[in-house]
Amino acid sequence: MRTAQRAVAIALFILVASTAYADSRVYTIEDAYDAALKSNEVIMISGESAIQAESRLDQAWTFLYPRLTANGSYTQFDDVLPPGGGSFIFQPRDQFNASLVLTQPLYTGGRTLAALRAARALRESGRNDFSSSKQTVLLRVAEAYFGVLKAQKFVEVSKNSLERMERHKKVTEREAKTRKSKMNVSSLLRANTLVNQARIALVRAEDGLKIARQKLSLLTKLPEDLSVADPQLLTAPAGALETLRQTAVQNRADYESAKLNQQAAAEIVTVTRGAHYPQMFAEGGVRYQDSQPQTGLDATTYYAGIRLQIPIFEGGLMKAEVAEAKSRQRQAELASALLKRIIESEVHEALTNLQTFDVVLETARLQVGDAKKNFDTVESLFSEGLVSSLSLIDAEQALSLSEKELVSATWDRQLAILRLERSLGLLGKNFLPRMDTD
Fold first, then answer.
1. CB-CB contact of 94 with 283 (8 Å)
2. Cα dihedral across residues 213, 218, 220, 221: positive or negative
3. CB 260 within 8 A of CB 120
4. What is the pLDDT of residues 365-396, one digit of tens each?
């Protein structure tokens, strides 16, 4: 009995220990990236689109191959013709027909090969769209991840602020007990108010952390109570604005996809026009007919030949369909040109934001250093009764505000680097060896 109880106790201990370990795990940004790439629905939807594009290429190939068609029919008539039968029966009572036909396209107005080229372009476009979707999701994950980081740091800053206010409250309480005066009582009430305000700020910071974690969990399906680690600080891509714009045009998967869609649209014009040109097919087959009673046409027949199909009048259908296809081609060209301008604008905006955050971060560091020295000095003077509590409150608020600004500037700059990498089409290429459907 004691042995069983010990076994149960050990099992419970292991279970509790393993649960505590799982809950206390700290996730890295690479963990978040990996989880999102495996489970995010946006990536899965884009992956299905890439699979569909691959299937369309397989469909295009089938129009180059010969087609073998089997037909069969059984017919029962109400009477034999001529009535009562005769030397030549042209309508039996029962008849069975079967045929096997092999058809090989010989000339289709160039549309078969054009459709194949269009399908290839669309397949590569689908793969590029898949890669672009991955980069977009990675950026969203990074935004959520840095949101959790900032929220964690804000909680720490709020806790430090609360501790400083509680120290101030203790000093004020000691002064109020030692020297009871209206001024000291007022200072104590003000200290109580500031402590409560610091607690409210801490509660709000913790609430913000919960929301940030939930947003990250939504993208990655990681636990909602997760903790994240500080990632290695990133280095911004080097180069002047024009160089970075050229890099973006060369690397952006969505721009490459737009150019491929432009090629596919040009091929679709050929496909549309070729559908109205003469079509030539080689055909061969075998026919079998069996009737009861027998007719003169019952036999097994083998045949082969060339079939030519020439459209003569279609009421202007070719002109209308070709005009529509050319319009879609112009749309694709305009979309590609517009996207290029948008990419160049995104690079300029991302680079400008990064340069701004460089200045903000450096200023925030200086600001925190000055605010920390000022608070330490004022707190020491206040404990000696040389400055009023208002000076200490002002110094504490300045320190708390500057610490939050430093937290925001630090991780906003890292996020600005990632946004610049995304605008250049480079995001995730160091993390992922390949970003395609294979």
1. no
2. positive
3. no
4. 999 999 999 988 988 887 777 877 788 888 88
